[in-house]
Amino acid sequence: ESYDMAGHDTYMHKEITEQADAVDRVLRGRIDDRFATVHLGGLNLDAREARSVRRVKILGCGSAYHAGLIGAQLVEELARIPADAEPASEFRYRNAVVDPDTLYIAVSQSGETYDTLAAVQELKRKGARVLGVVNVVGSAIARETDGGVYVHAGPEICVVSTKCFTNTAVAFALLALHLGRIRDLSVADGKRIISGLRRLPEQIGEIMKLEPEIRKVAAEYAEAKSMMFVGRVRGYPVALEASLKLKEISYIHAEAYPASELKHGPLALIEPAVPTVAVLPEDELIDKNRATLEEIKARSGRILAVAHGEQEQADHTIVVPRNEVELDPILMGIPLQLLAYHTALALGRDIDKPRNLAKSVTVE
Ligand code: AGP
């Protein structure tokens, strides 16, 4: 992949459309079909060490943190290791208890984000084992960590992250599968996840065909004074990332909430001028999610759903291809990158260089 725009008007658009290839690259050479296992050469964590991990703690900022939230869910689901993600920028300031049985993972596109680097350095000083899930090879965080997984998204120039976010989530799926197969994930489930991972590039290609439809929807939503993004469990990190993306490049105020939390307060904001984007994977929570849509509808809220089939409560549904439930969040974020892009375009924003933001925050 090159640094020129290759015929696109913005780097963001170029990078969104590169995602099928980028995902192909992060998977390449890493899967062993015979045993349904994964080779991650740079991990520096043998099977005995991997079995002794009691907890996984993922640290990153902004989109890297959101990809880490997807990563934590994948580690819990596939490897059954308790896992969570926290903004590195918070972690480094709160004198966290550093536990020797916890595997810490720092996530960063640039590998130079100061808050994440400072968290890694503090953890290392306290004797913790820290891995990196990093895009830029040889960057500061890649050098300071004990090992890790390169994300291989290729150069990401646009200030907002798109292909690196997606590839980071896929890298976490590989890591979770690796840990799972060393622990209790069955061969059959390993094969199911591998076949899902292999379907991703083609399914991303199908999502790209939705761009004209998403452009039309974006033109409508560009009028909104504020937008609400909701999702439950697997859908929630997708909602958080989509809301950040919209804010960063369109400057429309947006909030992301777990769908389950709406009734505990934010429902008060719902009115026709505040549309909701709902992320609804076809998983065990779909009925709960539909009930949330009813609650929004009852308050005259407009709804844009991202789902695996038409949602009758929604004003518009973007129907995306279905993968394995564990991997669906990876795909569901992509149409919402396009939504943010086309909303910002409709508003005439400087998409590659949004005001007040830098690609990599290397200072405190
Ligand atoms: C992404 O859209 C943002 N510009 C920002 O949140 C970014 O993800 C964050 O600053 C972390 O950067 P990093 O991945 O290079 O560490």
UniProtKB/TrEMBL annotation:
UniProt keywords (A-Z) are:
Aminotransferase, Cytoplasm, Glutamine amidotransferase, Repeat, Transferase
Which GO terms of the cellular component aspect does the record hold? Answer: cytosol
A Gene Ontology biological process in which this protein takes part is: amino sugar biosynthetic process
Main localisation: cytoplasm
- MF terms (GO), sorted A to Z: carbohydrate derivative binding; glutamine-fructose-6-phosphate transaminase (isomerizing) activity
Q: What class of enzyme is it?
A: transferase
Key word NAD present: no
Residues annotated as coiled-coil are none
According to its UniProt record, the EC number is: 2.6.1.16
Q: Which stretches make up the SIS domain?
A: 45-185, 217-354
Catalyses which reaction(s): D-fructose 6-phosphate + L-glutamine = D-glucosamine 6-phosphate + L-glutamate
Q: Which residues form the active site?
A: 359
Is the keyword Repeat in the record?
Answer: yes
- What is its subcellular localisation? Cytoplasm
Describe, as the record does, how this protein assembles with itself and its partners. Answer: Homodimer.
Purpose of the protein: Catalyzes the first step in hexosamine metabolism, converting fructose-6P into glucosamine-6P using glutamine as a nitrogen source.
Name of the featured protein: Glutamine--fructose-6-phosphate aminotransferase [isomerizing]
Source species of the chain: Streptomyces alkaliterrae
Residues included from the entire protein? 245 to 608 of 608
